[in-house]
Amino acid sequence: MPARKTSFARASGRERGFSLVELMIAMVLGLVVIAGAGSVFLASSRTYQTNQALSDVQTNARVAFELLARDIRNAGQTACNNNGRVANVLNDKSTDWFANWGNALRGYDPNTVDPAVTTGTAVQQRVASTSSLQILGSGSTGLSVASHNPTSAQFKLNNATSDLKTGDVIIVCDPDHAAITQITNYNDSNVTLVHNTGTGSPGNCSKGLGFPTTCTANGNSYAFPPNSVIAKLVASDWYIGNNPEGGHSLYYMRMTNVSGTPTGQPQEMVRNVDDMQITFHQPPNSDFVNAASVTNWSMVDAVRVHLKLESTDQRAGVDTKALTREFTSTTTVRNRVK
């Protein structure tokens, strides 16, 4: 009987489970392991989130600078030359910003009026504390002249095109000079465009396209020779505007032909651009200055743009706010570099 008791005791000892203390220790150790793994996962996730936000900011900055630089480089450029001889027969050159070739590149400091865009708090309106930039130049697609009759103010083109219509503002040029005028009638069937006076908005003060400009009915007559080039005038304004999501974006205001009238059409280009400050280089000065310090806009040969961007993820920063970065880029005006 005593031997049997010993055998039973040994058997029951082998079948015994964990004690409460052992179970609690195992649970604590398990929680520590889970907490460590969770901490590593959260840290990795946070790092990925931050890196992704930084990549988005850098990509947006690169796109913004590429768009701005392309326009700045072409400021004041015609398809034929850069000798500065430009006849401009548009009316209202002092009031319509796109009609003033003397301001082919023109900047506006924060809290100053930019005539191309309204400043305010509504969507697409300019943010008051930011700079803006107006640029005029010729389009990249040129059309070839077959003949020009200055008496009847008519151009014949070598090829038909659907790119032109009545009301478009164009730049026509040859090696001697360029002229800016508005099309008062375009007939696609016989590829004839007219640049007469008396109609249009802003309309032409003269049908004479010779240099220098003479704003009388016939003006300074000049016949552009065959193979002269005609291109649309491209007028744009870059600014920081209020976007539909309640933030700020880089906007592009482009002058387009709406029912025969040049009209500004704003377009959101890069979202989450919070600020833009612009300075300018005017020879012979060595420093970049703000717009108010520029004395001759036709002499400005370089533009320095400073952008502040924030991430789309509003909790990507270390303080669970939007991640912000600032970038600066300098672009030369191609046809003003000596």
UniProtKB/TrEMBL annotation:
What are the record keywords, sorted?
Membrane, Transmembrane, Transmembrane helix
On whether Membrane is a keyword of this UniProt record, the answer is: yes
Regions that span the bilayer: 20-42
Xref: Pfam families? N_methyl, PilW
Q: Which GO terms describe its biological process?
A: type IV pilus assembly
What is the name attached to this protein's record?
Answer: Prepilin-type N-terminal cleavage/methylation domain-containing protein
Specify the taxonomic lineage.
Bacteria, Pseudomonadati, Pseudomonadota, Gammaproteobacteria, Lysobacterales
